[in-house]
Amino acid sequence: MGRLFWKFFIAFWLALMLTMVTVIAAAWLLRWFEPAEQRSFEAERLGLLLRSTASVLQDGETGAAIALLRDWRDRDLQPGIYVVDERDRELLGRSLPLVELQALPDRVAQPAGTLVEAQAPDGMRYRIFAREAEALRLLADAKPKPPSILVPIAVSAGGSLAISALLAWYFSKPIRSLRWALHNAAEGRLDTRVQVRMGRRRDEIADLGRDFDRMAQQLQQLVGAQQRLLHDVSHELRSPLARMQAAIGLARQRPERMASSLERVEREVLRLDGLVGELLTLARLEAGAADVARETVDLVELVAAIADDAQFEARAAGRELVLQSSGEFIAEVEGELLYRAFENVIRNAVKYTAPATSVDVEVWADAERLRVSVADRGPGVAAGDMARMFEPFRRLDENPAVAGFGLGLAIARRAVESHGGWIEASAREGAGY
């Protein structure tokens, strides 16, 4: 189960538990706001007896009140109801302790609801009450009345509404952020990032936000790379075209130099052909090169053949190339692409290694992997340019006399990566990489 599942599970479980606790707490608290005579059925019944007797006395029906009191006494109704007039005479003649009679005025103000007063039409005032000890025992043993059905309904409705609103806000907020980010991305604003809006979330929605940020960053880099590539291609095509245009203009102005002008045009055409060829290779690698047939090749032998050819160039330039290899590594590969990849790296090392130094090419192979190391003694590369040197048209040597378009290492990286490998550059002691 994912983290989002547990968040939903715990949130709904806590919501139900909180609603139940809130209902119980509300019912318990509301009970204490009710009048004392309404907190239990016993208290309510006692209050009804007292008020009924008082009502009869207020109507002047003293005889009826006496009849009620006798009936309740004969039925042993508990607690017993007593009625005392202004002269402390009880209607049924029952005797009461003097102390208890003297305490009756103080019970009038008590909230227990065990004594009421009534005045007859003739002006006689009565106190109707239950004896305090019996009344308190009755109320102590009484069970509280259950709250009205409207109380739990209202509390649960209010509590669930608040909790549902909180949960809805918590789960919909990151989705709104993702929608905002996707809308911006669809509008072309690829610098949009949504992770900062996720806060400290640690669930699948936060993971989705991080995935979106990585996707947006990757798209931003790809679009930027395509724009730079288009700019670089335009620049590289414009230079030879400009030189061809100049050569044609010179031929028209000075027909006697037609041969040299045509020779210059031919060189520029060859240069353009080479550039277009490398661009097509790079484009094919970027597209996946799925339509190229593979062949069985011994890659150790392939690297050895390239090193053998590069050795002639190295010696002609006063340099050396030393190859160390052993064994074989036979694989189904695109031989032409890997040949160009290894050749670009090795010839690049021969081109930039210092005079009277050597380029070391080492090849290790086991049953599953092939590792090729090419080390020169050139001027070295700044640390910040190590990764960028494999980008298209990235030329670290801006000398126009140095041939090349800056596509060789880019093609090498794409070719190696298309076979599941990787290529990297690192500084070595004594300069070079």
Number of strands: 8
> Count of DSSP helices?
13
What's the average pLDDT? Answer: 82
| Strand line-up across the major sheet | 1-3-2
Helical/strand content category: mainly alpha
Sheet with the most strands?
3 strands, antiparallel
* Shape designation: rod-shaped
H-E order = HHHEHHEEHHHHHEHEEHEEH
Radius of gyration: 50 Å
Strand content: 5-15%
Distance between the termini: 49 Å
Oligomer: single chain
Identify low-pLDDT runs: none
Helix proportion: 55-70%
Can you tag this structure with a few keywords?
3-stranded mixed β-sheet, 3-stranded antiparallel β-sheet, 13 helices, single chain, 433 residues, mainly alpha, 8 strands
Textual characterization of the structure:
This protein is mainly alpha-helical and 433 residues long. It has 13 helices and eight strands. It has helices at 3-31, 41-58, 62-74, 98-102, 104-108, 132-141, 150-186, 195-198, 204-253, 258-287, 299-316, 335-352, 408-417, and strands at residues 81-84, 115-119, 125-130, 295-298, 320-325, 330-333, 358-365, 370-375. Strands 1-3-2 form a three-stranded antiparallel β-sheet. It has a three-stranded mixed β-sheet with strand order 5-7-8, with helices on one face. It has a two-stranded antiparallel sheet with strand order 4-6. α9 (204-253) packs antiparallel against α10 (258-287). The longest helix is centred in the middle third of the chain and has 50 residues, at 204-253. The mean pLDDT is 82.
